[in-house]
Amino acid sequence: MRYNKFKEPSQGGKKCSTYVIAIIILLCLISFLFSESIVTTLPSTHLLGVGRSIQSLSSNEIIGEPVNLTRDIEVVLQEQRRTINAEVLRNYTFPDEKLNFSDIDIRNLSPENNGTPIRSVIVATWRSGSTFLGDVLNSVPGNFYHYEPLLDHGIVQVRGPPLANNALNYISNLLNCNYTDMENYLLYGQDHNWLFTHNTRLWEKCLLYPHLCWNPQFLNKFCALFPFQSMKLVRLRLHLIEELLEDPKLGIRVLLVVRDPRGIMQSRKHRDWCPGQPDCWDPTLLCADLTADYSAAIRLKKKYPDRFRAVRYEDISLNPYKGAQSLLKFFGRHYGPNVKRYLDTHTKRNAGGVSSTFRNSRAAPFHWRSDLSHSEVLSIQRKCVTAMSVWGYVKAHNATHQKTLDPIKKNFILD
Ligand SMILES: *[C@@H]1O[C@H](CO)[C@@H](O)[C@H](O)[C@H]1NC(C)=O
Ligand SMILES: *[C@@H]1O[C@H](CO)[C@@H](O)[C@H](O)[C@H]1NC(C)=O
Ligand SMILES: *[C@@H]1O[C@H](CO)[C@@H](O)[C@H](O)[C@H]1NC(C)=O
Ligand SMILES: *[C@@H]1O[C@H](CO)[C@@H](O)[C@H](O)[C@H]1NC(C)=O
Ligand SMILES: *[C@@H]1O[C@H](CO)[C@@H](O)[C@H](O)[C@H]1NC(C)=O
User: Fold this and answer.
1) From CA 42, how far away is CA 211, in angstroms rounded?
2) Closest C-alpha to ligand 1, atom 6
3) Which atom of ligand 4 lies closest to the CA of 169?
4) Which residue's CA is the closest to the ligand 3 atom numbered 4?
5) Measured on CA atoms in the order 217, 74, 67, 52, is the torsion positive or negative?
6) pLDDT digits over 226-239, tens only?
7) Residue 346: band (very low, low, confident or very high) from pLDDT cuts 50, 70, 90
8) How far is CA 240 from the centre of its chain?
9) What is the pLDDT of residues 66-115, one digit of tens each?
10) Residue 49 C-alpha to ligand 4 middle, in angstroms?
11) Taking Cα atoms as reference points, which of 140, 144, 290 lies closest to residue 231?
12) Rounded to the nearest whole angstrom, what is the distance from the C-alpha of residue 80 to the centroid of ligand 2?
C-alpha cells in the first residue's frame, strides 16, 4: 500500500524520478526481507497464513528457493514432540485429589493421539488479575495457551446474542485446535502479536519460523500436540460458558476470577484503551456483570461441582503460593518447579511498569485505597451495592476509613 502511494502522483515529466524512488523502495524492502531472513519465494497458495507485509509483495519480487511448507511444519512438530516428551510425559505426576486425575494416562491426552487434553478456562473481566493467573497456568510444562481469543472484538463485553454466537464459535474452534475458519482472528493477530506472545511455546516457534506462525495448517497440528490447553477470557460473561461446560467431548474446567470493583476501576484508569468505552469505563455495567456472574456462578457450582470454581483475586494475591497450588489442583495440573519459579519471580517485587505481572502481590490489589479519591470510591460504591455485597467486599465509609480498612470479608465461599 505504501508502494502505491508513491506511484499515484507519477505523471508527465515526473515519471522518471518516480521510477527511481520506486526502485529505491524496492531495494529497501528487499534488504529488509534479507535481514529478516525471509528470502524465499512464497507461492501464492501459501500466503494465507503469512504476515501482511509479505502478502502485499508479489512473489516475483523476491528471489530464491521455494518454501516447502509441509517439510517445515513436520520439522517444527517433530522438535516440539521431543520437547513435550522430555518435559512432560516422562515425569508427570497428577495431583492426587478426589477428582480422579490419577486415572489418566498423560500420553493419551493430546488431540494428536485422539485424546481429550486437560482444558482449563479462566473467565474474568479486564484488570482482574487474569493475566497473572493465566501465566501461572501456562508455566506448567506441556501447556498451549489460548490468550484472550476475543481480542479482535474490541473493548466490548459479550453478554448474549448477537455477539455470543461468533464468540462461542471462536472459543470452541480454538479449544478444538481448529484454526481452519479463524481468518479474522489470525489477521488481527498479525498486527497485534500479543494474541500469541503469551502462548510462550508457540511464540518460541514463531520467532524461529515466522512464515509458519499464522498459518492454520501449522497451527492445527502444533496445537494438537499439547496435553494441556488453557484459555483466558475477559470479554465473555460467565453464563455463556455453560454451553461449553455441557459438552462432554471438551471436558473443560472453568475458573471465574472476580475482583473488587474499586480495584478494577482504579486499574482501568491507567489504561489508555479503557476510558470512554462504556463496557470498560462505566461502573454500573461492570457491577451488573459482577452480579450476573454471581448468579451464574451459584448455578454452575451446583450443576458442575467438580468442574467449576470461583475465586476472588485478592484471596489469591494475599497467598499466591497456596492459591496457585489449590488452583492447579482444581485444574488437574502438577505444581512443579516451573510454577514455583514463576511465582518466585512474579510475586515479590515491583518492576516493569503498569502492564507487568511483576509486582508485590500482597499490595497490588489494594492500591485503589490511596490512588482513588474518596468521592470516586463513593461513586463506585453507590453503583455497586449488590455486586460488593454478594462477593464480600466492605464499603469505605469516609476518607480515613478508606485508607485503613480491610476491604475483603474473610473466608468467602460461594453458596
Ligand atoms: C516437501 O517436503 C515433503 C516432506 O519432506 C516431501 O515429501 C515433498 O516432496 C516436498 N515437496 C516439494 C515440492 O519439494
Ligand atoms: C521427576 O520428578 C521428580 C519428583 O517431582 C523430581 O525430583 C525429578 O527431578 C524429576 N526428573 C526430571 C528429569 O525432571
Ligand atoms: C471418580 O471415580 C469414582 C469411582 O471410580 C466415580 O464414582 C466418580 O464419579 C469419579 N468422579 C469424577 C469427577 O469423574
Ligand atoms: C473445523 O471447523 C470447521 C468449521 O468451523 C469445520 O467445517 C471443520 O470440519 C473443522 N475441522 C475439524 C478437523 O474438526
Ligand atoms: C469513619 O468511618 C469509621 C468506620 O465507620 C468510623 O469509625 C469513624 O468514626 C469515621 N470517621 C469520621 C471522621 O467520620
Assistant:
1) 9
2) 71
3) 5
4) 100
5) positive
6) 999 999 999 999 99
7) confident
8) 18
9) 889 999 999 999 999 999 988 876 667 776 554 556 566 777 889 999 99
10) 17
11) 144
12) 20
> Which amino acid does the sequence have at 88?
V
Side chain identity at residue 91, one-letter code: N
Ligand nearest to the CA of 94: 2
Query: Among 175, 179, 180, which residue has the most ligand 4 atoms within 8 Å of its CB, making it the best to mutate?
Result: 180
Placement of cell 521431543 in the chain = 82
Query: In this predicted structure, what is the pLDDT of residue 67?
Result: 86
**Nearest ligand 4 atom to alpha carbon 181:** 5
For ligand 4, atom 11: residue with the closest CA: 178
Q: Which ligand 1 atom minimizes the distance to the CA of 69? A: 1
Report whether residue 180 contacts ligand 4, using a CB cutoff of 6 Å. Answer: yes
Strands (E), 15-138: 118-123
Pairing assessment for the beta strands 143-147 and 118-123 based on DSSP bridges:
unpaired
pLDDT value at residue 186: 97
Residue entry with cell 468467602: 412
Check if the beta carbon of residue 126 is closer than 8 Å to that of residue 268. Answer: yes
Return the pLDDT at 77.
Answer: 97
C-alpha torsion 364→261→390→150, nearest 10: -100
| Alpha carbon distance, N-terminus to C-terminus of the chain | 57
Question: How many Å apart are CA 232 and CA 259, to the nearest integer?
Answer: 15
C-alpha cell at 407: 476491604
**C-alpha–C-alpha distance, residues 284 and 273, integer Å:** 19
